[in-house]
Amino acid sequence: MSSVIHNMKPSRYTPATEDEARLQLATCYRACAQEGWTDLSSTHISCRVPGTDDQYLINELGVHFHEMRPDRLVKVYLDGTPVGAGEQAPTNPAGLTIHGAILQGRPEVGSVLHTHTVAGMAFSALKDVEIKPLTQHAVRFYNRCPAHEYEGIALDADEGPRLKRDLGEHEMLILRNHGLLTVGANPGHSFNAMYYLEKSIQVQLAAQQSGAPLNLVGDNVAESTAQLYETYPNFYERDWDGTARSVALADPAFNAAYIPWIEEGNLSRIK
User: Fold this and answer.
1) What secondary structure letter does DSSP report for 46?
2) Number of domains observed in the structure of the chain
3) In this predicted structure, what is the pLDDT of residue 8?
4) Which of 38, 44, 52, 108 has the most beta carbons within 10 angstroms of its beta carbon?
5) What is the pTM of this model?
6) Which domain holds residue 31?
Protein backbone atom coordinates (compact mmCIF):
# COMPACT_ATOMS: atom_id res chain seq x y z
CA MET A 1 0.00 0.00 0.00
CA SER A 2 1.34 3.41 -0.94
CA SER A 3 2.02 5.91 1.83
CA VAL A 4 2.31 8.77 -0.66
CA ILE A 5 -0.63 11.13 -0.81
CA HIS A 6 -1.90 12.69 -4.00
CA ASN A 7 -0.23 15.89 -5.16
CA MET A 8 -0.92 18.60 -2.53
CA LYS A 9 1.33 21.25 -4.04
CA PRO A 10 -0.11 24.77 -4.22
CA SER A 11 -1.39 25.78 -7.63
CA ARG A 12 -2.76 28.90 -9.29
CA TYR A 13 -6.06 27.95 -7.67
CA THR A 14 -4.69 27.95 -4.14
CA PRO A 15 -6.27 31.13 -2.72
CA ALA A 16 -3.94 33.88 -1.52
CA THR A 17 -6.53 35.99 0.30
CA GLU A 18 -9.67 35.40 2.31
CA ASP A 19 -11.81 36.91 -0.47
CA GLU A 20 -10.34 34.45 -2.94
CA ALA A 21 -10.93 31.57 -0.53
CA ARG A 22 -14.56 32.61 -0.07
CA LEU A 23 -15.16 32.81 -3.82
CA GLN A 24 -13.47 29.47 -4.51
CA LEU A 25 -15.36 27.74 -1.72
CA ALA A 26 -18.74 29.19 -2.71
CA THR A 27 -18.05 28.00 -6.25
CA CYS A 28 -17.26 24.53 -4.97
CA TYR A 29 -20.58 24.37 -3.09
CA ARG A 30 -22.45 25.34 -6.23
CA ALA A 31 -20.48 22.86 -8.32
CA CYS A 32 -21.45 20.10 -5.89
CA ALA A 33 -25.08 21.17 -6.23
CA GLN A 34 -24.82 20.91 -10.02
CA GLU A 35 -23.50 17.36 -9.63
CA GLY A 36 -26.37 16.45 -7.30
CA TRP A 37 -24.10 15.90 -4.30
CA THR A 38 -26.44 17.58 -1.84
CA ASP A 39 -28.34 16.51 1.26
CA LEU A 40 -30.31 19.68 1.98
CA SER A 41 -27.79 21.58 4.15
CA SER A 42 -26.47 18.59 6.07
CA THR A 43 -23.05 18.19 4.45
CA HIS A 44 -20.16 20.60 4.27
CA ILE A 45 -17.01 21.79 2.54
CA SER A 46 -14.23 23.82 4.12
CA CYS A 47 -11.28 25.95 3.05
CA ARG A 48 -8.42 27.32 5.12
CA VAL A 49 -8.20 31.07 5.52
CA PRO A 50 -4.96 32.10 3.77
CA GLY A 51 -2.32 33.58 6.04
CA THR A 52 -3.57 31.70 9.09
CA ASP A 53 -2.88 28.25 10.46
CA ASP A 54 -5.87 28.06 12.80
CA GLN A 55 -8.87 29.38 10.84
CA TYR A 56 -11.11 28.04 8.10
CA LEU A 57 -14.36 28.78 6.27
CA ILE A 58 -17.42 26.52 6.30
CA ASN A 59 -21.09 26.79 5.33
CA GLU A 60 -23.72 28.54 7.35
CA LEU A 61 -26.22 25.92 8.51
CA GLY A 62 -29.46 26.16 6.54
CA VAL A 63 -27.92 27.66 3.40
CA HIS A 64 -28.27 25.13 0.59
CA PHE A 65 -25.37 24.42 -1.72
CA HIS A 66 -26.98 25.90 -4.84
CA GLU A 67 -27.50 29.28 -3.14
CA MET A 68 -24.11 29.60 -1.45
CA ARG A 69 -22.39 32.98 -1.70
CA PRO A 70 -18.99 34.09 -0.40
CA ASP A 71 -20.64 36.18 2.33
CA ARG A 72 -22.68 33.22 3.62
CA LEU A 73 -19.56 31.31 4.67
CA VAL A 74 -18.64 31.34 8.35
CA LYS A 75 -15.08 31.80 9.60
CA VAL A 76 -14.13 29.65 12.58
CA TYR A 77 -11.07 28.54 14.50
CA LEU A 78 -9.96 24.91 14.33
CA ASP A 79 -11.83 24.21 17.56
CA GLY A 80 -15.06 25.49 15.98
CA THR A 81 -15.17 28.81 17.84
CA PRO A 82 -16.36 31.68 15.60
CA VAL A 83 -13.72 34.23 14.60
CA GLY A 84 -14.83 37.73 15.57
CA ALA A 85 -18.11 39.14 16.75
CA GLY A 86 -19.59 39.13 13.24
CA GLU A 87 -19.24 35.36 12.80
CA GLN A 88 -22.28 34.26 14.77
CA ALA A 89 -24.23 32.41 12.06
CA PRO A 90 -25.11 28.80 12.96
CA THR A 91 -22.86 26.01 11.70
CA ASN A 92 -23.16 22.23 11.67
CA PRO A 93 -21.44 20.98 14.87
CA ALA A 94 -20.63 17.62 13.26
CA GLY A 95 -18.98 19.49 10.40
CA LEU A 96 -16.83 21.41 12.85
CA THR A 97 -15.64 18.15 14.43
CA ILE A 98 -14.75 16.59 11.09
CA HIS A 99 -13.15 19.55 9.35
CA GLY A 100 -11.36 20.96 12.38
CA ALA A 101 -9.70 17.63 13.17
CA ILE A 102 -8.48 17.04 9.62
CA LEU A 103 -7.27 20.58 8.99
CA GLN A 104 -5.46 20.58 12.32
CA GLY A 105 -3.84 17.20 11.71
CA ARG A 106 -2.96 17.74 8.04
CA PRO A 107 -1.32 21.17 7.63
CA GLU A 108 -0.75 20.62 3.89
CA VAL A 109 -4.49 20.19 3.29
CA GLY A 110 -6.34 23.35 2.29
CA SER A 111 -9.86 21.99 1.78
CA VAL A 112 -12.07 19.15 3.02
CA LEU A 113 -15.24 17.99 1.21
CA HIS A 114 -17.87 15.67 2.71
CA THR A 115 -20.94 14.27 0.93
CA HIS A 116 -24.00 12.10 1.56
CA THR A 117 -24.77 10.91 -1.98
CA VAL A 118 -26.99 7.90 -2.64
CA ALA A 119 -24.12 5.93 -4.16
CA GLY A 120 -21.66 7.04 -1.48
CA MET A 121 -23.96 6.12 1.39
CA ALA A 122 -24.94 2.80 -0.22
CA PHE A 123 -21.29 1.90 -0.76
CA SER A 124 -20.37 2.94 2.79
CA ALA A 125 -22.99 0.51 4.11
CA LEU A 126 -21.35 -2.50 2.45
CA LYS A 127 -19.18 -4.87 4.46
CA ASP A 128 -16.46 -4.60 1.81
CA VAL A 129 -15.71 -0.96 0.98
CA GLU A 130 -12.62 -1.56 -1.10
CA ILE A 131 -12.52 0.45 -4.33
CA LYS A 132 -11.91 -2.31 -6.87
CA PRO A 133 -9.54 -1.59 -9.79
CA LEU A 134 -12.33 -1.83 -12.36
CA THR A 135 -11.74 1.30 -14.43
CA GLN A 136 -9.17 3.94 -15.20
CA HIS A 137 -10.99 6.21 -12.76
CA ALA A 138 -10.94 3.63 -9.99
CA VAL A 139 -7.24 2.78 -10.15
CA ARG A 140 -6.52 6.29 -8.89
CA PHE A 141 -7.69 4.97 -5.51
CA TYR A 142 -5.95 1.61 -5.64
CA ASN A 143 -4.97 0.74 -2.05
CA ARG A 144 -5.44 4.41 -1.24
CA CYS A 145 -8.96 4.71 0.15
CA PRO A 146 -9.19 3.78 3.86
CA ALA A 147 -12.35 3.64 5.96
CA HIS A 148 -13.51 5.09 9.27
CA GLU A 149 -15.98 3.19 11.44
CA TYR A 150 -19.29 4.88 12.20
CA GLU A 151 -19.42 6.28 15.75
CA GLY A 152 -22.73 8.13 15.54
CA ILE A 153 -23.24 11.77 14.58
CA ALA A 154 -19.81 13.37 14.90
CA LEU A 155 -20.58 15.63 17.85
CA ASP A 156 -17.82 14.35 20.11
CA ALA A 157 -14.47 16.09 19.62
CA ASP A 158 -12.80 12.87 20.79
CA GLU A 159 -13.64 11.33 17.40
CA GLY A 160 -11.46 13.89 15.63
CA PRO A 161 -8.10 12.17 16.22
CA ARG A 162 -9.53 8.86 15.00
CA LEU A 163 -10.77 10.50 11.80
CA LYS A 164 -7.32 11.94 11.21
CA ARG A 165 -5.70 8.59 12.03
CA ASP A 166 -7.90 6.67 9.60
CA LEU A 167 -7.45 9.20 6.80
CA GLY A 168 -3.70 8.99 7.30
CA GLU A 169 -1.81 10.58 4.42
CA HIS A 170 -4.47 9.84 1.83
CA GLU A 171 -6.82 12.20 0.00
CA MET A 172 -10.05 10.27 0.50
CA LEU A 173 -11.89 8.37 3.21
CA ILE A 174 -14.97 6.14 3.30
CA LEU A 175 -17.07 7.06 6.33
CA ARG A 176 -18.78 3.74 7.02
CA ASN A 177 -22.59 3.87 7.15
CA HIS A 178 -22.31 7.59 6.51
CA GLY A 179 -20.76 8.90 3.29
CA LEU A 180 -17.58 10.05 1.55
CA LEU A 181 -14.80 12.52 2.32
CA THR A 182 -11.97 13.96 0.24
CA VAL A 183 -9.22 16.48 0.90
CA GLY A 184 -7.14 18.68 -1.37
CA ALA A 185 -4.81 21.65 -1.59
CA ASN A 186 -7.80 23.87 -2.39
CA PRO A 187 -11.55 23.49 -3.09
CA GLY A 188 -10.98 22.65 -6.76
CA HIS A 189 -8.66 19.82 -5.77
CA SER A 190 -11.01 18.31 -3.18
CA PHE A 191 -13.88 18.60 -5.72
CA ASN A 192 -11.86 16.74 -8.35
CA ALA A 193 -11.01 13.94 -5.91
CA MET A 194 -14.68 13.62 -4.98
CA TYR A 195 -15.76 13.59 -8.62
CA TYR A 196 -13.56 10.60 -9.42
CA LEU A 197 -14.33 8.83 -6.15
CA GLU A 198 -18.08 9.22 -6.63
CA LYS A 199 -17.86 8.09 -10.27
CA SER A 200 -15.74 5.05 -9.35
CA ILE A 201 -18.22 4.01 -6.69
CA GLN A 202 -21.20 4.43 -9.01
CA VAL A 203 -19.53 2.24 -11.62
CA GLN A 204 -18.53 -0.40 -9.07
CA LEU A 205 -22.04 -0.63 -7.66
CA ALA A 206 -23.49 -0.93 -11.18
CA ALA A 207 -20.97 -3.61 -12.18
CA GLN A 208 -21.59 -5.60 -9.01
CA GLN A 209 -25.35 -5.33 -9.49
CA SER A 210 -25.03 -6.92 -12.94
CA GLY A 211 -24.01 -10.18 -11.30
CA ALA A 212 -21.47 -10.85 -14.05
CA PRO A 213 -17.82 -11.66 -13.23
CA LEU A 214 -15.68 -8.56 -12.71
CA ASN A 215 -12.60 -8.00 -14.83
CA LEU A 216 -10.12 -6.36 -12.45
CA VAL A 217 -7.06 -4.44 -13.60
CA GLY A 218 -3.91 -6.31 -12.60
CA ASP A 219 -2.07 -5.25 -9.45
CA ASN A 220 1.06 -3.98 -11.19
CA VAL A 221 -0.85 -1.90 -13.73
CA ALA A 222 -3.22 -0.56 -11.07
CA GLU A 223 -0.35 0.48 -8.81
CA SER A 224 1.69 2.12 -11.57
CA THR A 225 -1.36 4.04 -12.79
CA ALA A 226 -2.19 5.18 -9.25
CA GLN A 227 1.38 6.45 -8.92
CA LEU A 228 1.00 8.33 -12.19
CA TYR A 229 -2.04 10.13 -10.76
CA GLU A 230 0.03 11.03 -7.70
CA THR A 231 2.90 12.52 -9.66
CA TYR A 232 0.93 14.34 -12.38
CA PRO A 233 1.30 18.05 -11.48
CA ASN A 234 -2.03 19.57 -10.44
CA PHE A 235 -3.95 17.74 -13.15
CA TYR A 236 -7.25 18.83 -11.62
CA GLU A 237 -6.63 22.39 -12.87
CA ARG A 238 -7.58 21.43 -16.42
CA ASP A 239 -11.19 20.83 -15.40
CA TRP A 240 -11.69 23.42 -12.66
CA ASP A 241 -11.90 26.32 -15.12
CA GLY A 242 -14.76 24.60 -16.94
CA THR A 243 -16.49 23.68 -13.69
CA ALA A 244 -16.23 27.29 -12.52
CA ARG A 245 -17.61 28.61 -15.80
CA SER A 246 -20.56 26.25 -15.55
CA VAL A 247 -21.30 27.51 -12.05
CA ALA A 248 -20.91 31.15 -13.03
CA LEU A 249 -23.06 30.95 -16.14
CA ALA A 250 -25.91 29.33 -14.21
CA ASP A 251 -26.38 32.49 -12.12
CA PRO A 252 -25.90 35.99 -13.59
CA ALA A 253 -25.05 37.49 -10.19
CA PHE A 254 -22.40 34.87 -9.55
CA ASN A 255 -21.22 35.26 -13.13
CA ALA A 256 -20.35 38.90 -12.51
CA ALA A 257 -18.10 37.94 -9.61
CA TYR A 258 -16.49 34.89 -11.14
CA ILE A 259 -15.96 35.29 -14.89
CA PRO A 260 -13.24 38.00 -14.65
CA TRP A 261 -10.69 35.74 -13.00
CA ILE A 262 -11.53 32.87 -15.34
CA GLU A 263 -10.72 35.10 -18.30
CA GLU A 264 -7.59 36.53 -16.72
CA GLY A 265 -6.34 33.29 -15.17
CA ASN A 266 -6.41 34.46 -11.58
CA LEU A 267 -8.67 34.88 -8.57
CA SER A 268 -7.88 38.48 -7.77
CA ARG A 269 -11.03 40.24 -8.94
CA ILE A 270 -14.21 39.88 -6.95
CA LYS A 271 -17.02 42.32 -7.70
Assistant:
1) E
2) 1
3) 65
4) 44
5) 0.91
6) 18-264
